[in-house]
């Protein structure tokens, strides 16, 4: 019996350690990452990218995409905090994993990186479609650009794109500017402009188009110009993040080490921007940057410190909240000037921009409106590249009690005067009427 208990403990301890190290609000950086490969050769050919993740503390678990023992969950708990799909040709995942498994994985708040290419399977395309991205339907299509190709690497190959059309966001790509263009060779995709959850991080030039480079164009290309996205990101409503690239090669060691000279430019870079671009982008995807949390939400009457259970109309109150950003290792004060609070009942009766002390604390004061009912303090904060904040706190507001009204209301003095003047006039009229003939 004792030996059996020891075996159970030995088997369950690794699982317990995995679960304890998983994603949490206090330590939001993903740590255990599943990497699915078409072939283990990719582990060597893309080793620089994997080493950059491991150097930042990520535990990468490499598996073949068709491994029959593949699993994302055990005993109802996810074994991984994030997943990287470097398996563009896989037709069917191994084990019990399918498209729905990865969609549930993202719906549960976990992050995902998808790299496709021109030989991408329907399986990978289906996952991308569910994330809001549509790859070119032609399986032999490449992004072609006759003006922004890399002339220093493969002479005459206009499918080797040198793109520097980056998203203008420091929180997504870091504060250090990416000087060199990024090399890209693969398939393009489009996003729905009405979908505000998907962002183009790297776009093609206006002269680019998507087509089969080995055949003549008989019909207009389905994707053209800057509408072609080379790399996109998705931030779901639950703050899970997804990176979608149309090129697996751009993550490779060969691209990381390659120099680049863009067509029409005399500047030749000894090293392209792929390593910096993808490293900074992975920091955002894995919540090392742009992850916010709000704590210590407080409200009380002016001059008091305790939070009341109910407010009275026309009370003066103070509201405050502390907001911090995860830096990858610790929580740092988040400083902005666009955080707002609503005092809400069916619609916002009060909308105030919060002031900040530059140390993470946001605060404001306002007067409770002259309307009673059940109100909410609401903070709905959405900013490009940052996780969204949605805070709400309910509080009832009552009218004045009968003994709390002012004895004489200044605004009613004309009515008081009218009443007394009428009584005085009636008295004078009566006296005149009675005592005069």
TrEMBL record:
Main location, first listed in the record: endoplasmic reticulum
Bilayer-crossing regions: 413-435
An example Gene Ontology CC term for this record: oligosaccharyltransferase complex
Segments forming domain OST48 middle: 299-437
Pfam families: OST48_MD, OST48_N
Positions of the OST48 N-terminal domain: 32-285
Keywords: Endoplasmic reticulum, Membrane, Signal, Transmembrane, Transmembrane helix
GO BP annotations listed: protein N-linked glycosylation via asparagine
Cellular localisation: Endoplasmic reticulum membrane; Membrane
Signal peptide: 1-20
Biochemical pathway: Protein modification; protein glycosylation
Membrane topology: Single-pass type I membrane protein
PANTHER family in the record: DOLICHYL-DIPHOSPHOOLIGOSACCHARIDE--PROTEIN GLYCOSYLTRANSFERASE 48 KDA SUBUNIT
Function: Subunit of the oligosaccharyl transferase (OST) complex that catalyzes the initial transfer of a defined glycan (Glc(3)Man(9)GlcNAc(2) in eukaryotes) from the lipid carrier dolichol-pyrophosphate to an asparagine residue within an Asn-X-Ser/Thr consensus motif in nascent polypeptide chains, the first step in protein N-glycosylation. N-glycosylation occurs cotranslationally and the complex associates with the Sec61 complex at the channel-forming translocon complex that mediates protein translocation across the endoplasmic reticulum (ER).
Family under the similarity heading: Belongs to the DDOST 48 kDa subunit family.
Subunit field text: Component of the oligosaccharyltransferase (OST) complex.
This protein's name: Dolichyl-diphosphooligosaccharide--protein glycosyltransferase 48 kDa subunit
Source species: Sesamum indicum
